[in-house]
Amino acid sequence: MNEAASDTRKGSKGPGCLLNGFAAVFLLAGLAAMYFIALKPLFHYWQTDSWERVPAQVLDSRLNRSTSDGSTTYSVSARYQYQYQGRTYTSESVSLYGGSDNFDDFWQRLARRLEQARLAQQPVLAWVNPDQPEKAYLERGLRSGSLVFGFAFGGVFALVGGGLLFFFNRRAKASGNPEGGGEPIYSSNQKSGHGFLIVFGLIFVLLPAPGYQSAIEGAARGDYAMLFIFLFPLVGLLVMAGGLVGRRRYKFFGPTPLTLDPDPGQAGGQVGGEVLISRAVPHSARFTVSLSCVHQETRGSGDDRRTDTTVLWQSDQGGYVESGMRDSRVQFCFDVPGDLPPTYQRGRQSVYWQVSMKGELDGRELHRDWSIPVIQGDVGSRFTLPESHVEEDRRQREEAALASAREQIVVKRTGQGLTVTSRAGRNLGLKLGLLLFGGIFAAVGTFLLVLALDEGGMLYLMAGAFGGVGYGLVALALYMLGRSLQVVIRGDEVRSRRRWLGIPLRQRSMRLRNADQLVLDSAVRSTTNGRVQEYMNLYAQDESGRVRVAEGIAGQQAGEQLREELLRELHLV
């Protein structure tokens, strides 16, 4: 038996249970926070809508303070007396809310009101249950601060916990037997993922449902903060829509099982296989297949716990399509270096291998991932791709990379020399995503700050956290969207000018005399599901430093093609 595979099996159960337990704690904590802080008072508010209001005399009241870890929370205790249908009752139930907190100044205001009524011997109004007159409340109002905190705090924890549970179990299921065995492997981002989105979206729509009518009534009275509750069904509907769209896409392509050969794959040999698509696909259709080796390590513990993910190796190729009458097969075959590690999990460190496939058919995108077993070995694959296909794929990739480089970076001859322009507004998906994410956080922070000005308490802390992150990301996104770089190369002089929205910011220059001075470097690397997207910068450098020639080039191959084109234009090759 392979040693790496044995290590994987031995170490998988303990860490898997631990990770599931960790995720379950997040999920249960979030649901509990949503229930006790937000939903339970909403249910009570709805149930007490038919209760009757009667005068009550406050016999005793006090504001309770509890200090722990430098934070003070409050609650109110009171005893009052009232009459209903000729009988006298005494109660100590004060509010729909139990326990103590410091979301806002609700308890302080309530304590002042009750104490003033007691000292002046003025009656207050109590809400009395007509079916059980011994049950009553002095304060029935809903607290916007509690609703915001309960749904925001609890919702985030529940989503994180549920998402982690899904991710951990999906990874375990998708990885299958690390020793292989010839069984098809199913994608880890297919049907179950769409069902997860639909169910979680439905939860976000239904959980706050008892408060919808109350929020509308509160807004009619001028308490517009209660409308915050409608953000949750809005998010839920968007999540559900994403799940339904993904479900339709899944049904179009089918389960897409992957059959490996050799099984398991070989680090030092080949990783090959074929993906079954449940419909006829034209032979000319293009599907990009990627193979990645990913290392993960968990560091720290408690609040300092984090997981570092590093892509050790990655390679792409065009899949070879064999089309049938009712279904089709996309084949691939990678030569894998022998110095890469096999699949394993030991303690806090693990290595997993992933096959990804992307393509488009009839306007529908296909994107599937499979976690596969890989061991050390030198076995080849029976899925050997035709040499003509391999050569055509290489040529098309080089042409696509050059076209991408020319689209991203403008290179042209002018009277001043060779001009290289990195225009503003490129890579809009990355920057607009950052702007949208930051804008949402900034809007929530601003909303919470407005609430905090009226109600105080923990809302100031939440407003600072959301607002600080949000406005920082917005500022960064706006700078990235507006910046541009123009470089003029005349003779051996390189002169660069940085601008933002056309406003000059700085200028630099240096001498470029040989090809070795023009170097390509990675600027930003993002990893999503084991898939790396690199954004490259091109520099002219000497012993005194470096000057940026082009920036934000999406893809290493596009950066390499741009470098080769500039060297040809400058007659340095």
Give an account of the 3D structure:
The model is unreliable at 1-15 and 172-180 (pLDDT under 50). The chain is built from ten helices and 24 strands. Helix 4 (191-206) packs antiparallel against helix 6 (231-253) and helix 8 (428-455) packs antiparallel against helix 9 (459-482). The protein has helices spanning 3-47, 106-120, 144-175, 191-206, 212-220, 231-253, 387-408, 428-455, 459-482, 556-569; strands at residues 52-68, 71-84, 87-91, 124-128, 136-137, 258-260, 265-267, 270-277, 287-299, 306-318, 320-323, 328-335, 344-346, 349-361, 364-372, 374-376, 409-414, 417-422, 483-490, 493-500, 503-511, 518-528, 531-542, 545-554. The protein is elongated. Strand 17 and strand 18 (417-422) form a beta hairpin. The chain is α+β, with helices and mostly antiparallel strands and 573 residues long. 40% of the residues lie in helices and 34% in strands. The strands form six sheets. Strands 3-2-1-4-5 form a five-stranded antiparallel β-sheet. Strands 9, 10, 13, 14 and 15 form a five-stranded antiparallel β-sheet that branches.
